[in-house]
């Protein structure tokens, strides 16, 4: 195994790590967005229920 092989392996590992980080970042954004939607829906339902009570 020469230096070129090692460089290719390292590049591949770095690419994989970067992709995993991007996926994790997107998951966190998605989670925050979903939490906001759930909170908004909960507030709307609470408002509607209070109107009819």
Q: Which SSEs are present, and which pair or pack?
A:
Layout: H1 3-52
Overview features:
1 helix, about 55 residues, mainly alpha, about 95% helix
Explain the overall architecture.
- This protein is an all-alpha fold and 53 residues long.
- It has one helix and no strands.
- The longest helix is centred in the middle third of the chain and has 50 residues, at 3-52.
Count the E strands. Answer: 0
Structural class: mainly alpha
What's the N-to-C terminus distance? Answer: 75 Å
Gyration radius, in Å: 23 Å
Largest sheet descriptor:
none
Mean pLDDT, to the nearest integer, reads 95
- Beta-sheet strand percentage? under 5%
Give a nutshell description of this structure:
The protein is mainly α and 53 residues long.
């Amino acid at each position: 195994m020469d230096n070129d092989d090692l460089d290719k392996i390292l590049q591949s590992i770095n690419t994989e790590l970067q992709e995993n980080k991007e996926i994790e970042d997107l998951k966190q954004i998605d989670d925050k967005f979903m939490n906001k939607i759930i909170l908004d829906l909960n507030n709307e339902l609470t408002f509607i229920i209070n109107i009819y009570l």
